[in-house]
């Protein structure tokens, strides 16, 4: 089962490698990880969501087979629920090219157990053809309310339920 305490091997994969996808085969879950080091979260952000969670920083790295993304989350207060996040890779026209929607660390670090100040890194990978031009592509990142399924709001004047970020924060 997902996020089982007995499954220390799966937990280790979630904590060390970027997640790519999950498929069900013959009633069994098959998880795919990119077996390379995750990208460094070098882009400071501090996007605060109304769920008591902040996206502190993120990082991306282009590999020949795709894009590695790292998200560093922190709890400002003890979250009351287990939130999931979404990450959409958007092309220059704002269309979703790839996406992942899931709980942090595959369910091994549910947000409801994060004490105030807890920082959690999450790693993901989007397979892409090497010829993909990512020059004007962006990431759309947000949290999802576990009860309503609706995106949680950023705590800023825009009232947006997500943040849109460049792939390269040095620009």
**Measured on Cα atoms, how large is the radius of gyration?**
16 Å
Distance between the termini: 42 Å
Please give the count of helices: 1
H/E series: HEEEEEEEEEE
Unreliable stretches: none
Average of the residue pLDDT scores:
88
Q: Give the CA-based shape.
A: globular
Main sheet: which strands, in order across?
A: 3-4-5-8
Please bin the fraction of helical residues. under 10%
Percent of residues in β-strands: 35-45%
Query: Strand count, sense and closure of the main sheet?
Result: 4 strands, antiparallel
Number of strands: 10
Question: Structural class of the helix and strand makeup?
Answer: mainly beta
Briefly, what is this?
With 171 residues, the chain is mainly β. The chain has one helix and ten strands.
Kindly describe this structure:
- The strands form three sheets. The chain has a four-stranded antiparallel sheet. A four-stranded antiparallel sheet has the order 7-6-9-10, with no helix packed on it. Strands 1-2 form a two-stranded antiparallel sheet.
- With 171 residues, the protein is mainly beta.
- It has one helix and ten strands.
- A hairpin with a 4-residue loop joins strand 3 and strand 4.
């Amino acid at each position: 089962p997902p996020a089982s305490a007995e499954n220390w091997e799966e937990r280790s994969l979630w904590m060390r490698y970027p997640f790519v996808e999950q498929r069900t085969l013959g009633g069994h879950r098959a998880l795919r990880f990119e077996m390379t080091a995750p990208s460094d979260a070098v882009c400071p952000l501090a996007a605060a969501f109304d769920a008591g969670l902040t996206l502190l920083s993120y990082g991306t790295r282009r590999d020949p087979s795709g894009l590695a993304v790292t998200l560093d989350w922190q709890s400002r207060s003890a979250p009351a629920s287990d939130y999931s996040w979404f990450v959409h890779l958007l092309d220059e026209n704002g269309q979703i090219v790839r996406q992942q929607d899931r709980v942090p660390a595959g369910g091994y670090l549910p947000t409801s157990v994060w004490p105030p100040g807890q920082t959690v890194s999450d790693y993901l990978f989007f397979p892409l053809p090497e010829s993909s031009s990512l020059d004007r592509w962006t990431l759309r990142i947000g949290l999802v309310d576990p009860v309503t399924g609706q995106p949680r709001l950023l705590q800023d004047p825009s009232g947006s339920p997500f943040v849109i970020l460049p792939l390269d924060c040095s620009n």
